[in-house]
Amino acid sequence: MNLMMSLFINSLIALLLISVAFWLPQLNVYAEKASPYECGFDPMGSARLPFSMKFFLVAITFLLFDLEIALLLPLPWASQTNNLGLMLTMALLLILILTLGLAYEWVQKGLEWIE
User: Fold this and answer.
1) What does the mean pLDDT of the chain come to?
2) Cα atoms found within 13 Å of the Cα of residue 92, Cβ hemisphere only
3) Which CATH architecture has domain 1-108?
4) Under a CB-based contact definition with an 8 Å cutoff, are residues 98 and 68 in contact?
5) What is the Cα–Cα distance from 87 to 93, expressed in whole angstroms?
6) What's the CA dihedral at 62, 66, 67, 71 to 10 degrees?
7) Contact 110, 61 (CB under 8 A)
8) How far apart are CA 60 and CA 98, in angstroms?
């Protein structure tokens, strides 16, 4: 009984939220609300400027390497384990993978700004 009641209430809340989400965009949108805001002044130029792909590639590369380096953070606590050799081997394997990834980026010239 409790399971059926909770499923019914959850479904009802989900349907209510979906209907509100479809109803809200139907409201009137004014041009002033949709325009970009620059400290109370009208925009000087277009708000849709082209984005350099180099910045995007460097940002993605940074995120990948940063997240992989975060895997090394628990390494000092690995000294408390019984199988220290396995932990150090895994850490060295991770560092090797990071080094190979950096070498690949270097060879593919993903870190250079000048073409």
Assistant:
1) 82
2) 6
3) Up-down Bundle (1.20)
4) yes
5) 10
6) 150
7) yes
8) 15
